[in-house]
Specification:
single chain; 279 residues; ten-stranded antiparallel beta barrel; 5 helices; globular
């Protein structure tokens, strides 16, 4: 077996391990309709699509900040997982309606990396990478995309036009007492060069979800994201994989987020001030 084959094998094994630990049993078998655990709109693809958009953002096009906190773990084949950083982040999103079955999702993300013991912000500071033993300078995570999300043959699909990537989005709806839940995962190609997967469970008010008058649904959520290590860590992919695990809520505005986060956002992403505007 050559090095490339070993690397591919390790990536697959690590992705399976991380996915199994993070989200066991995420793809349940189809079940008959149960009024105790489901609501009628959940069997309607068009209404389910609208509620997916209302959970993820705001159908009026207003900025929707998804604020979250959590941990950044290293997962390895040869030792226990390790908490490397605390995380604080916001996925700022606008959902622009293009048709009844199609929206443009404009994502802007800024994630802070903090010391897991002290909570100190580490951006621009030297940090000893426990995986390689080398000193590196910590950088925040900055990303964004303008994707198309649409209902296609009764299935939700997200398309990145810039990269010509089409990703089916699997949503399993359920209800429990006063809450409704959306369990979300995305089906990415098996032949992609690096492992990447995310799993989200969003919680909302069951009665509000059945009333389609409001442009957005308030939500709290848990999310797990499996990905290669951050570039600033300078860690070879065969040494392991990262798992981001966090909980958060849909905030009313960016202005409502913590002062320390907004200060770092202004420092590293000043171009977003015009995009955020008056919200």
């Amino acid at each position: 077996m050559n090095l490339d084959q070993m690397t591919l094998l390790n990536r697959r094994n690590l992705l399976l391990l991380a996915g199994a630990v993070a989200s066991p049993g995420l793809a349940p078998a189809a079940a008959e309709f149960d009024p105790q655990t489901q609501d009628p709109w959940m069997d309607d693809p068009e209404k389910s699509f609208v509620n997916y958009v209302r959970l993820m953002g705001d159908t009026s096009g207003r900025l929707s900040p998804q604020w979250w906190r959590g941990g950044y773990l290293g997962v390895f084949e040869d030792r226990h997982p390790e908490l490397l950083f605390r995380l604080e982040s916001c996925e700022m999103k606008r959902c622009i309606r293009r048709s009844a079955h199609e929206y443009e999702f404009q994502y802007r993300v800024f994630t802070m990396f903090l010391d897991p013991d002290t909570g100190d912000i580490l951006h621009g500071k030297r940090w000893r990478n426990p995986i390689t033993g080398n000193d590196v300078v910590v950088e925040p995570n900055i990303s964004g995309a303008d994707n198309i999300v649409k209902l296609d043959h009764e299935a939700i699909v997200e398309i990145n036009p810039a990269k010509a990537v089409r990703v089916p989005t699997d949503v399993w709806w359920s209800a429990q007492g006063p809450y409704m839940m959306a369990h979300v995962s995305r089906t990415r190609p098996e032949d992609r060069p690096i492992p990447l997967q995310d799993y989200i469970t969003l919680f909302g008010d069951r009665a509000a979800a059945a009333d389609f008058g409001a442009p957005r649904l308030e939500t709290r959520f848990n999310t797990t994201f499996v990905a290669p290590f951050q570039r600033f860590m300078e860690t070879p992919t065969q040494r392991g994989i990262s798992v981001w695990h966090a909980s958060g809520h849909k905030a009313e505005s960016v202005a409502s987020l913590p002062n320390a986060y907004r200060s770092e956002l202004a420092r590293y992403r000043p171009e977003l001030s015009d995009w955020i505007g008056n919200e």
